[in-house]
Amino acid sequence: MLRISIYEDNDSLRESLGLVLESTYKLLVVGMHGDAMNISEDVIADQPDVILMDIDMPGRTGIEAVQLLARRPNRFKILMLTVFDDTERIFAAISSGAVGYLLKKSPAEKIIEAVHQVAEGGAAMTPSIAMKVLEAFRQPKKGSDFSEYELTPKETLVLTHLVQGDSYKMIADHCNMSMGTVRTHIVNIYEKLHVNSKSEAVARAMKSGLLD
Asked: How far is residue 110 from each of residues 33, 72, 101, measured CA to CA in Å?
């Protein structure tokens, strides 16, 4: 049996997903949650094999939840299930640790198929999402110096550690900076990259070739 946890703030959709999955052979719904505020405790209690994760939820977004879970060793796979199909969120989710990305308009059988696919080590995506990912990788890379964004060497170093998942304190330690200096660099990075969050900065870094 595959153990499934669902994170979805729409009560009706959450219940419908639960019923569909629960009625499917060899799938067991072990948790249904309206937000991800207690996700660390949830995964300990649920012990899921696959997590279906919405993005736009109250208190903590699905991408932030994925980032939080990435800091701890785990055996489960995370499959995003969302209405958003923009490249920024796709790359933010994938770079944070999600192994699949589906749109909510996907038929139930496709969602079930994707659950099995990610559980077996695959990567599941809605065809339109997969095309966006391919198109993004086909775009010419700008190089890892971010010269087009006019980042300073220190800002590039801080961004590199952000991409690696380091906390502000870890960045301060690695780069021999104060916490205040790290925050200043991050504010400047967000402004130059035209982003508003760490996940968006990481997605922009991936698209620009910083991880090559």
From this structure: 22, 29, 12
Q: CB–CB of 84/54 below 8 Å?
A: no
End-to-end CA distance of the chain: 38
pLDDT tens figures, 58-116 = 999 999 999 889 877 778 999 999 999 888 888 888 878 888 899 999 999 999 999 99
**In the predicted model, is pLDDT for residue 155 greater than 50?**
yes
DSSP 103-158: ETTS-HHHHHHHHHHHHTT--EE-HHHHHHHHHHHHSPP--TT-GGGT--HHHHHH
- Give how far Cα 12 sits from Cα of 16, 27, 75, Å: 6, 20, 29
Closest by CA position to 162, among listed 182, 137, 147 = 182
Confidence check: pLDDT of 134 > 80: no
- Can you spell out the DSSP letters for 19-42? HHHHTSTTEEEEEEES-STTHHHH
Chain-centroid distance of CA 210 in Å reads 18
All domains of the chain, ordered by start, with CATH? 2-137 (3.40.50.2300), 147-208 (1.10.10.10)
Phi, psi angles (nearest 5°) of residue 82: -150, 170
